[in-house]
Amino acid sequence: MVKITYTVIYYLLSPLMCVRWFFKSLKPPQYREPFRQRFGFVAWHQQTDIWFHAVSMGETSGAVSIIKRLLETNSTLKIVVTTTTPTGAKLLHEQLGSKVIHYYSPCDLPGTIKRFIKRISPKMVVVMETELWPNWLDHLNKKNIPIILANARMSESSARKYLCFPQTTRQLFSNLTKVLSVNQADARRFIQLGVFESNLQITGNIKFDAQFPSSDPQDYFPFWEQCFVWIAASTHQGEDELVLKTHKKLLEYIPEAKLILVPRHPERFQQVATQIEKQGFKFSRRSNSTSWSEQSQVLLGDSMGELLAAYQKAKVAFIGGSLVNIGGHNAIEAAYYAKPIITGPNYHNFQYLFDSLLERKAAVIVENANDLVIVLEDMADDLELVQAMGKTAKAFVESNQGALDKVLTVIQSTLKSI
């Protein structure tokens, strides 16, 4: 009954979704492309070996790592990748080009998913992290198509929401062929939700195994070499204001301090630029080299796919989505580049990761903008502490590598058994 109600509501909301996509198509323009794909109207495929599904850049990055290794051993594999966002699509095209076929993810409507699966004809499906759609899973299960949930995460708050509908949840999760959990705590929650223990394996987090490029910070922004630079990465609405308030106070204590501000969503770049200007900061936009200046106090990271380069420019990293109730974002990249991590109190989406960094004193938690100012001032005064925290963070990343090989083994063995 819950599933039927869900599907009816989805049908009723689909016109509003189309309106939403239309307005999003105005900014950024990449959203114009997926309209027909969203309803399963894609090219006909004779056979697809693996269909990978990822949401945005983080999940796509994990999928790219797996796909690259798969293609190293079998370059003839036919792979389709769906993403929900243009940022994920952009990363995929940059990393894999024509080696895979990309579509935007289809709606979770019965007719749409039937059409999509009929057209791509996948042997198996690999879903990154926890992007689960009831009608997708139901139809894949009816077609006896194996479903692997890779790099699977399940926060305590998400598990509680699922358990509001226990019968439907157990049916949903029992459809999964394999769940490759990132840690023991997540594994326990998956079992509680209905995953069969025999279908569960703890593989670790493949994001620790990602290939992180080294770049010259001068290439990202050719100034600020002798300054205290901090980055606020993947910030959300309501959080940018707190970050700018923090930086204004920090400048009173350290006039030469610099901020790299990277909003999470590209459609907010102009909105954040307006906020920076209203606050009276001298600022540059990464996307516009004519605005670059040594005297800038803030650099708006409004270019796509350059967060890793921005991390390398900074000395300290604040991870956004944590001073507002989003649940935080991935800190592995910042930790890999040996940056001390600062997080707000809301990091439940990456509970294990942040708890581990905090336990090792490679990260600091702040409750509000005032706490953030104090922590930044302390770090600016003690660069030896900054280096020590950064080294600990990097060592933690290196000690957790090896998950990718385990995930590959499961995918390859499942594919051979089909």
The CATH class of the largest domain is identified as: Alpha Beta
Biggest sheet strand line-up: 3-2-1-4-5-6-7
Portion in strands: 15-25%
Based on the structure, what is the oligomeric state of the protein chains? single chain
Query: In terms of structural class, how would the helical and strand content be classed?
Result: alpha/beta
Major beta-sheet overview: 7 strands, parallel
Can you tell me the CATH topology of the largest domain?
A: Rossmann fold
The CATH superfamily of the largest domain bears the name 3-Deoxy-D-manno-octulosonic-acid transferase, N-terminal domain
Task: Determine the fraction of residues in helical runs and give it as a percent range.
Answer: 40-55%
Task: State the low-pLDDT regions, or none.
Answer: none
Please tell me how large the radius of gyration is.
22 Å
Which architecture of the largest domain does the CATH hierarchy give at level 2? 3-Layer(aba) Sandwich
Give the mean pLDDT.
92
**Total number of domains:** 2
Strand segment tally? 14
Distance between the termini: 33 Å
The gross shape turns out to be globular
Figure out the total of helices: 18
